[in-house]
Amino acid sequence: MIIKIVLSILIIIASTSIGYLYSYKHNQHSRQLKKLYTSFQLLETEMMYSSSSLPYALNKIGMKNKYALKNLFVDTAELLSNKCGYSLEEAWIYSINKNFHKTCLSEKDKEILISFIRNLGYTDKEHQKKFFQSLYLELEQQQKFADDFYQKNGRLYKNLGLLTGLTIVIVFI
Amino acid sequence: MDSSSYFFNKEILEALPLNIREFFIKIPFNECTDIEEIRLRISKPLMIYKKNKDYFINKNGTITTDIGKGYIVSQDDIRKSYQLITNYSVYALEEEIKNGFITLKGGHRVGICGKTILDKDGIKSIQDISGLNIRIAKQKVGISDHLMKYLIHGSDQFYNSLIVSSPQCGKTTLLRDIIRNLSNGMTNLNFKGVKVGVVDERSEICGVCHGIAQNDVGIRTDVLDSCPKADGVMMLLRSMSPQVIATDEIGKKEDANAIEEALNAGVKLITTVHGNDIEDLDKRPYIKPLLAQKIFERIIVLSNDPKVGTIKEIIDGKTNKVIVSYPNKNKGA
Fold it and tell me: pTM to 2 decimals?
């Protein structure tokens, strides 16, 4: 009997945790998009007003972030600074392949980031500003989707986890 | 030393995409010492220029004259190379790009061709890059040593000097070395060395990159980089108390006015002008009055016969007499 009770509690805790984790992932998606948005704003400022070189600016922005987002920028900056012959796009894709799975960002976010980097640094300031404006619109839209999704489903995932645990306990134990 | 990487310094190799970089690393050392230019043009063979001739580079790093064997430069090669040259930061080099070139570390210059974008003030930018020309800088230290005795007198006095030559005859190279000697001083001539202010409008004399002169222009030299000559001369006069002002390629009215202003302030001057010989200068409306006033005490005439940098003669600008001439002798290069 005691074993059954302990097992039931463990199942409920595990399934509730899965629900919470799933909900947390969507919460983090929205937060990381906000972080990305702010990072690109800082990058724009570095480029437009300080005229910093792109490897320096990417490294600086990276150091203001944490974990996977940090590495996304810092790894790219490192490859560019070493002047190994990579194009910016190649360095960025290498960094994305290495670090993206550690973030909570979606495949659509990945496409936006890759498409943006194609034009980064390659034109004059006026054009760069336009590219940044276009990126902001896309990130805002992505963030709105992520927020809506979390609002709609965040609580649902948490409850679903708990309820799934309870169901398993009731049916099998 | 069987590899050209010993010849091509880091800055030049780093300006090339990886595949093209490998071709150049394979070129034997003795074959690349005379390379003056590396030319990349979209969908055209990769070319180098040495000893007044074009050559092609093939995938094995062999220099060839057979056009069919040359590696064809792709758009991606140009794009990568442009990114490497600009350090992925075209937006930070707008002013340089407007002038059509970027100076690399080491003083090497990269000429840019593409679609120019205009605004009401003139050229705004260059886009759709179609060709790059990497001009390898080779400072020739000591080429002016033998003629300094004609340009200086006393322990710190210098004659106002004008270098006259056609393009590609080495006048900027000679000017740079004269600046170095003036600035450092010459113990063998008991010349102490003077403060030299350089107005380097096209970054050719000093090859300034990120604020640092890449060529040796001496220890007492102050450089105003990318500054219009007329404005630069006035700025130096006001702020740096130079004893000699050096500038390249005068020709405009405002240049002539600035020169007169500098001379009135008691500063000596060395500059260059385009022309085959001294008679050519009579056709230049703003140079002719300067010669008539006998402002230039020494006029050095250069030619590229038998080779670039040959000094034809040095003329006393006051008397128009030839002080020294070098018939068919290659003293300059």
Answer: 0.77
Sketch out chain B's domains with CATH numbers.
4-135 (3.30.450), 145-325 (3.40.50.300)
8 Å CB contact of A52 and B90: no
Which of B37, B131, B114, B39 minimizes the C-alpha distance to B78? Answer: B131
8 Å CB contact between B127 and A123: yes
Q: How far is A69 from chain B (nearest CA, A)?
A: 21
Q: A41: domain range?
A: 2-172
pLDDT at B327: 66
What count of CB pairs under 8 Å joins A to B? 64
Give contacts of A 113-172 with B, CB under 8 A: 120-125, 128
Rounded to the nearest integer, the mean pLDDT of chain A is 90
Interface test with B, best of A44, A46, A49, A54 (most B CBs within 10 A): A54
Buried b (16+ CB within 10 A) or exposed e, A90-115: bbbbebbeebbeebbbbeebeebbee
Residues of B with Cβ-Cβ distance to A54 under 8 angstroms? 87-89
User: Mean of the pLDDT values across residues B244-256?
Assistant: 88
Q: Do A122 and B16 touch (CB under 8 A)?
A: no
Q: Tell me the C-alpha to C-alpha distance, in Å, between residue A21 and each of A149, A157, A158.
A: 15, 9, 8
Q: How many domains does chain A have?
A: 1
Interface predicted TM-score of the whole assembly (ipTM), two decimals: 0.82
